[in-house]
Amino acid sequence: MGEPRTTRPAAPRQGSPRLQESTLLATARNAFLATARSAALVICATHALATPAAPTPAHPQALALPPGDAAPRIDGHLDDPAWQRAPVHDSFYQYEPEDDEPAPDNLRTTLQVLITEQALIVGLRAWDDQPALMRSALTRRDQVKRDQDFVAIWLDPTGHKRAAQFVRISLAGVVADGLYRADEDEEDYGPDFPVEAAVQRLPDGYSVELRWPLSSLRYPYKAGLPWRIMAVRSVPHADDLLLVSAPLAQDSLSFIEELQELGGLGETLQAVRDRGFIEFKPEFTARRQRRTGEAGRSRRDSASLGADLKWRPRADWVLDATLNPDYSQVELDAPPNTGAGAIALSLPEKRGFFLESADVLGLPLPAFYSRTIADPRAGLRATWRGTQADATALSLADQDGSLLLRGSPYETQDWLQTRDSSASLLRARWHGDPAAWGMLLSQRDHGEGRRNSVAGIDGRWRTASGEDAETHLRWIAMASQNTAGFDGEGLPLRTARRDGRYGWAEWRYSSEQWWHEAEWEWISPGFVNDNGFVAQAGVRRLSANLNRRLGETRLGGGESGEGGLALYEVEAHLGLHEIRTLPDAAGGVPGGEVVEQQLRPGFWVQGPLRSELWMELGFDRQRARTRGQLHPVPALHLGFEGAPLPWLTRVTGEFSLGRLLDVDADRVGRGANLWLEMQTRFPLPRGWSLESDHAWTGTWVRGSDGRSAFTEGSWRWLAVLHVSARDSLRLIAQNTRDFRRSDALAGLESYADRQRHRSLMFRREWGYGRSWSVGLVREREDPLRDRYEELFLKLQWAWAL
Question: Among 80, 125, 161, 479, fewest CB within 10 Å belongs to which?
Answer without folding.
Answer: 479
